[in-house]
């Protein structure tokens, strides 16, 4: 009896498999509709010429479903009636793939062939999504975007995919057609406030009758993709294995746009705001890892290259790699630190009369806000090695080279292992920007050593005149600040800066002019300027609330000692400095008085201490009434060698103390 029952069961299963279990259409529809809490249809309408007896399903070796029509209803809140409509559907699934999907892995479909496929995917601002099933109320956590299944063979003769995501601000419609073993796809719409257009052509696909014959896709399929998002442009010429969401992909790319940030924003990659750029190179994708080798990247006048990997499998995407190049112009990265003004669309389109009423603000420090949110959407680990950094001024020598280690983790951007060379000297240290809060926290610990001042600060002079100042400068700065822009941070700086100049010299004319030694200045002019040896030059500054005040700032030469006090305010962008010159020698004609530098960074003013200068002039005028030669008496300066020596001793003491600390 058992044998007979087994034989009967085998006959029934064989007959069912041969006939395609047509009577299961209704039960499967009801089971799927109940499970998904959506109306699911597995056959054509009853009044259709192809009624439900065209439905076929087989279970041996996997699930093989044939139906003239498959429909999945949209959720009740949607304005469309059907989320999915597939005509002439041929679907094949392996049990091992279903088991893996049940365990939480992405679904793999062995084969999907449809003469027509229309899919509408939607997500509302409250998180409700059409690809969420059996969910009546909005989720406390918004649904993640749908993870597309992978395919062994995918053939859609005509298809339409509509995707609207109110959370990501995306609305795209794409159309697919298959003719002569070639797949053509176009897409248009909006991607995060930027217009989107794209077209792709994939050649060498298997014919519909050969869907299970993988020889049609065993070789890599040629793919040509052209896309634009806003003003960013991409062309890709490469090959892929199949049409799955995680298929390996490899090819050449040509990417251009008005800014690197314009490319990073649509794909969720944090890239700096820059000038216009173009890059070409090789792109490879395997699983959730994208790799790019950039042969040449042009950003303004900068020339860069690099190799990067972008991994999306973790809690946050991670960018790793190296950035190199022959030249980087700081001006091309101006918007990164806020030096490029923001011009709104309304301002750009405003008539000239309206624009003429916009008055410039007399500020020189960059005030553009940082994009702190961009620091929290990914992590990064990038080595930097650039041959030359142009500082965007003809007065300063470029850095050659610059090496550093850039790390972005948990919203904290750090530039460590800094090693830059310029003017025979070296710059080293670490910079960090903490973007985890509403305001950025900035921290710097930077040292410089052996920088030749006459080379680093270019001092063009006529003839054989020596540079205004020369020597090797060294120093150390430890500063902290906070704010939403570079100007805010500079205006809140606190810390200390110390620098000294060794083995240097200073223009004799500059020293005499600063001390208003008329006689000696005229003598220097007549016999040409000469360099005075610097015995010592030290500046030790304290910073608090964006205001720098010298603890000590003194310059000692063989002719005079110069003592400087006062303040420099980055908060108010104001100067209030006083320079007092103590001569070491006799001069018959001098108007010596403290020199003041006041005013704003944009409009500094240089003046003399009028009280002391006025007294000398008044005395000279009175004596001139008695005898013209007597008018010279108040202008005679015998020199104050004691004061000068005290300043010099203080300077040397500070320099020795700094040498011991270093």
* Fraction of residues in helix: 10-25%
Judging from the principal axes of the Cα atoms, what is the shape? elongated
Would you count the extended β strands for me? 32
Structural class category? alpha+beta
- Number of helices, counting only DSSP H or I runs of 4 residues or more: 13
Which stretches are low in confidence, meaning pLDDT under 50 for 5 or more residues running? 45-52, 211-218, 337-362, 515-526, 586-591, 613-636, 658-662
As a percent range, the share of strand residues is 35-45%
The overall pLDDT, averaged over residues, is: 76
Radius of gyration: 38 Å
Distance between the first and last residues' Cα: 99 Å
Protein described:
A hairpin with a 5-residue loop joins strand 23 (425-434) and strand 24. Helix 10 packs antiparallel against helix 11 (518-527). This protein has a 32-stranded mixed β-sheet that branches. It has a domain at 495-662. The chain is built from 13 helices and 32 strands. Helix content is 19%, strand content 45%. By secondary structure, the chain is α+β, with helices and mostly antiparallel strands.
